[in-house]
Design goal:
There is one protein chain. The chain is α/β, with parallel strands linked by helices. It has one domain: HAD superfamily/HAD-like (Rossmann fold). Helices cover 42% and strands 16% of the residues. The protein has a seven-stranded mixed β-sheet, with helices on both faces. Helix 5 (90-103) packs parallel to helix 10. The chain is globular, with a radius of gyration of 21 Å. The two termini are 24 Å apart.
Length: 285
């Protein structure tokens, strides 16, 4: 067990860090649609074709771009990420939390676990703050460079496997062996995890992290507290908080308290192990 603990902060993206769905800023306006029109067409398309929701929106996005004459390439998707806007305080949140962790002897790592498009997230202003971004991805034709197939689709239940991957350090999504291997000493134990989400699609992750001894936080936009209150009352999350990431905010203070608690818990577990090892040696000597 390492003397300096690592704590993983794992985030959904849309309406957790960004204040809207990532497609709403540039991708949908470029199609000449309103956001309501686009998502309504996605719903109609997937229901007509009996498609799972994530695969449905991924495929319809390709069709819509083709009809508009927009090359559906990795570069194009990346370019639509630059206009994403975030909740207050998000852009400097990661450096501040890292500094706080360092001040109390904790290593902080940040991760995205999203059902959105990785190529869009990669193009946003905070992409370099994450150790790993887990999100949906396309396979691109080698000649044209255009997307032809979803190669990774992450729905709300599949998100939980990425918690396992973070815990085990199994970042290669094409490797199904390491993520399923039994590990007695994980890279990041579940008790050292904080998951941030905003609603129904995050319930499996929030519930899992909470049950495994970590901490789950549901964030909400001002005036929409009612959307997450049930998660707290139903014991699916540990806390709810306004999506305000500024220094000194309720969320800022809460997360620092949680990190400090995790650091103390790690210290006590380490001390207990050291005592047991020492006494075991005496008894066996």
């Amino acid at each position: 067990m390492k003397k300096k603990p690592t704590i993983a902060l794992m985030y959904d993206f849309d309406k957790t860090l960004a204040d809207q769905d990532m497609q709403n800023y540039t991708f949908i306006p470029n199609l000449g649609m309103t956001t309501d029109e686009f998502w309504s067409k996605v719903q109609s398309f997937r229901k007509k074709n009996y498609m799972e929701s994530i695969l449905g929106y991924m495929y319809y996005s390709m069709i819509a771009c083709k009809e508009k004459g927009i090359p559906f390439t990795k570069e194009y998707l990346y370019s639509t990420g630059k206009d994403i806007k975030f909740y207050k305080g998000v852009t400097n949140w990661f450096d501040r939390i890292n500094q706080y962790g360092e001040s109390i002897g904790v290593n902080i790592e940040h991760y995205i676990i999203s059902s959105g498009i990785k190529e869009i997230v990669d193009g946003c202003s905070i992409a370099d703050k994450f150790k790993k971004i887990f999100a949906c991805q396309y396979y691109y034709d080698e000649e044209s460079g255009e997307a032809i197939w979803p190669k990774i689709a992450i729905n709300y239940t599949q998100k939980t496997q990425y918690i396992f991957r973070v815990s085990k350090g199994a970042f290669d999504e094409s490797d199904n062996n390491k993520v399923n291997e039994k590990m007695t000493d994980r890279v990041i134990p579940y008790r050292n995890m904080i998951y941030f989400g905003d609603g129904v699609t995050d319930i499996p992750c929030m519930t899992f992290v909470k049950k495994q001894g970590g901490t789950s936080i549901a964030v909400y936009t001002k005036g929409q507290k009612n959307k997450v209150t049930g998660l707290l009352l139903d014991d699916r999350v540990n806390y709810i908080s306004p999506a305000d990431y500024q220094e000194g905010s309720d969320l800022d203070q809460l997360v620092k308290c949680i990190i400090h608690q995790m650091q103390l818990q790690h210290t006590l577990i380490l001390k207990q192990r050291q005592q047991r090892q020492r006494e075991s040696k005496k008894n066996n000597g």
